[in-house]
Fold this protein.
Amino acid sequence: MGREVIKAVSSDAELMLTAACDPAFAGEDAGRLSGLGESGVIIDGSLQDAVMKADVWVDFTRPDTVKGNIATAVEAGKPIVVGTSGLSESYVSSLVTNNVGVLVVPNFAIGAVLMMHFAKIAHKFFPSVEIIELHHDKKIDAPSGTAAKTAELMGAKEQGVDEGPRGLNRDGIHIHSVRLPGLVAHQEVIFGGLGQILTIRHDSLDRSSFMPGVILAIKEVVKLNGPVYGLEHVLGL
């Protein structure tokens, strides 16, 4: 995802790549690593060293490091867009950012945001619902942030109960996670009613599907004065 963000930022006429951070690739050229050729942007090993080099930061890291990265950016007065899973809406709402924009997005694909929005509408008419989310086998968290966000939009509490084969039960909404090689990011929300089934599904077939949302988030986070959870808030949904 970091390489895709580098390519997307580099190709946008209104943006300029000025810094990158990844301890695993410290000292390498960010453009060359992303297949773009030499960019002159050398990857830093720590965010503390890099934070002042950019006007906006984009975080695709790990649940065990993302909170520290947010704190570092906020302390430096730098808006940050976060695509890392594992952050709840209550945590984001509790952040004290001193008027620094923090935009945490469970899914940057515009179609996925619409899928969640449509599911919220449908749930008013179909209370019986289950969520199946399917991702590549390297995804480290389950359920996905998108599935959790979908359940929350339909009124479920953040905490769930693991019911084994029936998945994670969040206030009666079961979430099932599939992890297989060959998948990217997919989710279907299945509603059951008297004599009918309604399925709302979204498929990301390539990580490039997330980039229009990432670019939008970068441009919008500078307008925020605090923490926001979900791309729908800058899409006007």
Remarks:
- The longest helix spans residues 110-123.
